[in-house]
Amino acid sequence: MRRELLDRTLILNERHLRRTLTRYLEHYNGHRPHRALNQLCPSQAEAGPPRPIDLVEHLVHRTATLGGPINQYQTAS
């Protein structure tokens, strides 16, 4: 967490720290791949791996999280 978030973010006060940590934990548990979980996030590991998709037929959207140091990628429906 320190390398991925806190070393790249200027924390202004306690409220900002709490909001930033909450968003990071949502990203960490819901989107970030983990090597120990075979590149799945913890929420995917509980539900099972997603089915493969053909990226040629789908657009991929990038969403900046926490102002830009972390990005999330999703396929458009």
Quick recap of the structure?
This protein is of the alpha+beta class and 77 residues long.
Please tell me about this protein's structure.
- The protein is built from 2 helices and 2 strands.
- The radius of gyration is 15 Å and the shape is globular.
- The protein has one domain (6-75).
- The chain has helices at 14-30, 42-47, and strands at residues 60-65, 70-75.
- By secondary structure, it is of the alpha+beta class.
- It has a two-stranded antiparallel sheet with strand order 1-2.
Shape: globular
Mean pLDDT: 81
**Total helical elements:** 2
The strands making up the biggest β-sheet line up spatially as 1-2
Strand content: 15-25%
Please give a handful of descriptors for the protein shown:
alpha+beta; 16% strand; single chain
